[in-house]
Amino acid sequence: MRAVPSPVPTKPPMRFSVGNYLVRVRAQVMMRDDSTGLWVPMGGGGLSNVSVRKRVIQPDLDDSKHEYLIYGKRISDQTVVLSCTIKKDFEYYKVMPTFHHWKTGDMKFGLTFQTAADARAFDNGVCMAFDDLVEEPFQCEPKHANAYT
């Protein structure tokens, strides 16, 4: 399945909604197990719909206050397997055409995409979100992450 980009609305909705995403792809959600040095499937594995979503933080006070989440829901049973806020300490690595991973705080997550096109679309969504958060261009070039791969 191809990535389904969605434009960010000019005025954020008042609540978190299904269609409020920058990008949505299908991928296997992974988490880094530092004790073994391996990437392991989250929540028992299985393909998930993974999106970069925009969410208003305090809709009653200021509609411009928002955050972005990387959100994954397993297709087979609709279990949420990933909900990760993109913060300013976010580090994103494109180590292979179909495997990208990131670090935020002490957590390390990864996605194994079905296609390289899905990976590129997801990368673009992450870059748009980070650009909006930091109000300066995010370095969207591939990083080499020998310590994490």
TrEMBL record:
One Gene Ontology molecular-function label: protein kinase binding
Matches recorded under SMART domains = WH1 (SM00461)
Q: What would be one Gene Ontology cellular-component term for the protein?
A: plasma membrane
Cite a single GO BP annotation: negative regulation of MAPK cascade
Q: Where in the cell is it found?
A: Cell membrane
One Pfam match, given by its short name, reads WH1
**How would you describe this protein's topology in the membrane?**
Peripheral membrane protein
Q: Which residues form the signal peptide?
A: none
What's this protein's name? Answer: Sprouty-related, EVH1 domain-containing protein 2
What species is this protein from?
Portunus trituberculatus (Swimming crab)
